[in-house]
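Subject: complex prediction, re-run

Hi both,

The earlier run crashed halfway through, so I resubmitted it with identical inputs.
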Amino acid sequence: GQSLEQPSEVTAVEGAIVQINCTYQTSGFYGLSWYQQHDGGAPTFLSYNALDGLEETGRFSSFLSRSDSYGYLLLQELQMKDSASYFCAYTRASGGSYIPTFGRGTSLIVHP
Amino acid sequence: EAGVAQSPRYKIIEKRQSVAFWCNPISGHATLYWYQQILGQGPKLLIQFQNNGVVDDSQLPKDRFSAERLKGVDSTLKIQPAKLEDSAVYLCASSLDRQGWQPQHFGDGTRLSIL
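This time it finished cleanly. Structure:
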């Protein structure tokens, strides 16, 4: 079957580091993406992993282990503006197309 | 570069009425997605087009939802008749996808309320 699990909520203080985990199960796995969505806003792309390892983009990093069907998003030097929902999404490759499935999202609350 | 355009931003209708949403993707983007996002949940893929062909519509309630992407550019999503459980934000996204995977760019969505 297909599934995608991530914590519903994570809290942290400004300046700290937080990790949001994501586990998935699907056939035809191609890659794992992360999107950020502020309340009332549109999701915006943060990071993507197709291969095992760490991808770094500024304060955000994402990690993937294909053998463990596991990934995480790491946010460093947290700022108040990072309070948002974070979605992991896996992509299945099918007939030359890439079909996404989003998780339920993790609400990150950053305290001063 | 102009982003993904959606209209209307808000729509309030009564149950059993019909409604239509419009999306214009980023110019040159081959793939267009329609999502339903219920409050507190992640976006649920309803239908995915590549150019003007359907890639996946496995989660589209076909008895009441329909979508088309004529000429492989803009797209419309229709609900007829609407039910209370259709209250959600309907997001449109597009991606380039001409040479391998590309990230999705989302529009601001249409917030639909069913009375």
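The longest strand of chain B covers residues 88-95.

- K.
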